[in-house]
Amino acid sequence: MPFDETYFSSHAYQNVSFARFSQYWWSNRFYAILARRAGRGGGRLLEVGSGLGHLAARLEGHFETFAVDVNPWALVKSKAVATRTPLSLASAEALPFRDGVFEVVIIKHVVEHLPHPERAIAEAGRVLVPGGSLILSAPNLTSVARSWKKERWIGYRDPTHISLKEPAEWLDLLRTAGFRLRRVFSDGLWDAPYIPFVPKALQKLAFGAPGGLQAVTGVVFVPLRWGETMIVIARKEPLSDSQA
């Protein structure tokens, strides 16, 4: 399935309102907080797989923002949202930038869609400055929700998820690409219902409370097992004297 208007209307963006305080709104707000903390000095930030541009737009006042996506339709839509962000049609596996030009790179729910995600991780390392930060997220195969829902788990419901991996595999790829792991955590259980015969609204409140509190406060505390998504904050290792 191509990443076009059909995809956006049938998967992650289905029935999503971009209005204030929607789940989509809070997600972008939370990732923006993570990005600002990771790049305290500002500088250049790249979002890889920028979708409709709302996260990049949130960061325009804090960084010199850049964004890439493989979806021409999404990039057209993004122009009206991320008005100060240069937008490029490009693959995560072949970024159109020089080495060492970004202080922060965000790859939010992209690597699971790629045939060679290790190339995207290596590319993120290439374009980051030494000491720069990477924020990466992907479906969390160690989530308790996966064991509950089995084939109905959200990570399996998108046919474009062609590179689902255990968190340990993703972390090994990051280390191999020269990253030092700083934080590994999750975003909570937000895909209710999880158990039968209990109203969905009640489950959303009960199961979603920890992730919701994390998103609202920006304080990271949800363990990996108790969320749908693995989120990693990593730092590119500085060059050694022999490499400089």
Q: What keyword list fits this structure?
A:
20% strand; alpha/beta; seven-stranded mixed β-sheet; 7 strands
Q: How do the helices and strands line up, and which of them pair or pack?
A:
Blueprint: H1 5-10, H2 23-38, E1 44-48, H3 54-58, E2 64-69, H4 72-78, E3 87-89, E4 102-108, H5 117-127, E5 128-139, H6 144-149, H7 167-176, E6 179-186, H8 200-217, E7 229-236
Parallel strand pairs: 1-2, 1-4, 2-3, 4-5
Antiparallel strand pairs: 5-7, 6-7
Helix pairs in contact: 2-8
Structure in words:
With about 240 residues, the chain is of the alpha/beta class. The longest helix is centred in the last third of the chain and has 18 residues, at about 200-215. It contains eight helices and seven strands. It has a seven-stranded mixed β-sheet with strand order 3-2-1-4-5-7-6, sandwiched between helices. Strand 2, helix 4 (about 70-80) and strand 3 (about 85-90) form a beta-alpha-beta unit. It is globular.
Low-confidence stretches: none
CATH superfamily: Vaccinia Virus protein VP39
Number of helices: 8
Q: What shape does the CA trace take?
A: globular
Indicate the multimeric state.
Answer: single chain
Please state the CA-atom Rg, rounded to the nearest Å: 17 Å
CATH-derived architecture: 3-Layer(aba) Sandwich
Number of domains: 1
* SS elements, strand count: 7
Distance between the termini: 44 Å
Give the helix proportion (percent range): 25-40%
Q: Name the beta content range.
A: 15-25%
Structural class: alpha/beta
CATH C-level: Alpha Beta
Strand order of the largest sheet: 3-2-1-4-5-7-6
For the residues shown, what is the average pLDDT? 91
